[in-house]
Amino acid sequence: MSTGAEEVFRVAVPSDDGGPATVFEHLWTPYRMAYIRGEGKPTGAHDCPFCLIPQMDDEEGLVVARGERVFAVLNLYPYNAGHLMLVPYRHVPDYTDLTPEEVAELGWFTQTAMRVVRAVSGAHGFNIGMNQGSVAGAGIADHLHQHAVPRWGGDTNFMPVIGLTRVLPQVLRETRALLAQHWPADGAPVPAQGN
């Protein structure tokens, strides 16, 4: 009987060459089946997380910064510490739906996110991108959002490769507070650090 929590089981699986059994760890996450089936996915602006987050206070919504047309929010399921999403307030699915002003502010927020994360954590590089449509991997396809994922040399170590586990060195609320503290309030550029 599952409580809905993750459960880890050791399962013996024969190797391909007929040799001794190999033991793998399986992480059973039965609550994810609802996500896979599409249950609970947003059906419009009324239940879209990216439409609801701006109505929350910054700490509760993990909002780092708010602009006129775009906001920066920490990813609730980050790839790396400091994984930000830059999101237009307007509920549109496609990059081609943005106005020139939204594109400009999205670009400025992306640059600012990179500068702020470099300043506070010394990121060596970034993965910047957006998945357009569910077939392209967008978890919330109806509301455009761009990912800014900080990267460090060696950040793909044995934990994700062997242990299939990500190690994040800081809780989201602490990361949000640190990034928000360094985000320029007056629109002034953050001093560039080493690329």
UniProtKB/TrEMBL annotation:
InterPro entries: AP-4-A_phosphorylase, FHIT, HIT-like, HIT-like_sf. The keyword Ribonucleoprotein does not apply. Keywords: Nucleotide-binding, Nucleotidyltransferase, Transferase. The active site is at H145. Substrate binds at N75, H147. A motif (Histidine triad motif) lies at residues 143-147. GO terms for molecular function: nucleotide binding; nucleotidyltransferase activity. Residues 49-158 form the HIT domain. PROSITE patterns: HIT_2. CDD domains: FHIT (cd01275). Transmembrane segments: none annotated. This is ATP adenylyltransferase. It comes from Geodermatophilus sabuli.
